[in-house]
Design a protein that fits this description.
binds pyridoxal-5'-phosphate, Aspartate Aminotransferase, domain 2, Aspartate Aminotransferase, domain 1, alpha/beta, four-stranded antiparallel β-sheet
Amino acid sequence: MRIAPFGVEQWMNEWETGAVTNLAETCVDSMTLGELLDIDGSRDSLGSAANLRLSYGDIKGSDELLALIASLYENQSSENVIVMNGGIAANFISMFTLVEPGDEVICMYPTYQQLYSIPESFGADVNLLRLRHEDGFLPDLDRLESMVTKRTKLICVNNPNNPTGSLLREPELRRIADIAGSVGAWVHCDEAYRFMVHAPDEQVPSMVSLYDRAVVSCSLSKCFSLAGLRIGWLVGPRHFIDEVFSRRDYTTISCGMLDDLFARAAVRNSKKIFARNLAIVRSCAAMLDEWVDGEPKVDYARPSAGTTAFLRYGCEIGSEDFCRRLFKKDGTFLLPGRCFGNEFDRYLRIGYAYSPDVLNVGLRKLSDFLRDLEREGL
Ligand SMILES: Cc1ncc(COP(=O)(O)O)c(C=O)c1O
């Protein structure tokens, strides 16, 4: 089996650990275990965890965790949920279940590369639904309608979108469901950033509530600030989750007792954690917006949700050189647009929502670097 190198992850692997000012981070300000337990009022459970016998634990995940995850969605129960080690494993196993050689798959682009490179590696014919800057990186759904055929097995969506921060709202999600329904296709919607919508009081439904052949993925990494707990999940129709389970037996015995224990503390307190994180995300988004307004060399389609934005710059230097030079100058770390495809070589993905302090310092350093380039006539 051949598979394309995962551009974003390879860049992160190579550079992230040495970063001084990390503007590539996509998680919201990671929590310590102590912070999590304080939010849950259960610091003592750390002591009682010492008595846990470290077996595989509940193979499926504890009943409580499955029920808590189901409660994040409308009209879903534990039978509609399967837990995996992170959203990345959840995405993988969904595709592993759905996609066969020769299937047609349509995937929005740019997005998290897994969503198109995995189906491609399984022998699917993958067609990309290109998101355009001038459309605010929202898909042209007439185009999607013209792309589907009777052979279309799966439409992959990422909502909110990484890297652009664009957000599909209910009418667009319903239209995608209708288009998929017209040819009996599945929709896999990666909702890793779903709970971080910027506009106060705006909520966007999960795709799984809108379509009976939808499967959605999410995890504790981004919106819960707990990437160190490797817990992600799929939510979908029960018969599909059963199918996924028979494949999971080959990849994942269990997700770990300690991860399950602390995941329960997190999801029990989702409201409190989302309130903490939305305050961070919104204030960082406002800071970024002000910076973009005042920075003549940079523009963007303002993100509506999530923690990332796609900055377009007007300098004569490719995005990988840009990021390497910036990193070498003072340890400021950004992700080159080229990791998402050659056509995005004048873009940078910024992860702006880790913390306001980091963002503040990073944007100043980025402006200094842009002035360096100007002086060089770039
Ligand atoms: C859209 C999207 N999906 C899935 C993942 C996987 O993250 P995790 O496995 O930590 O849930 C990421 C991580 O960057 C992501 O951005």
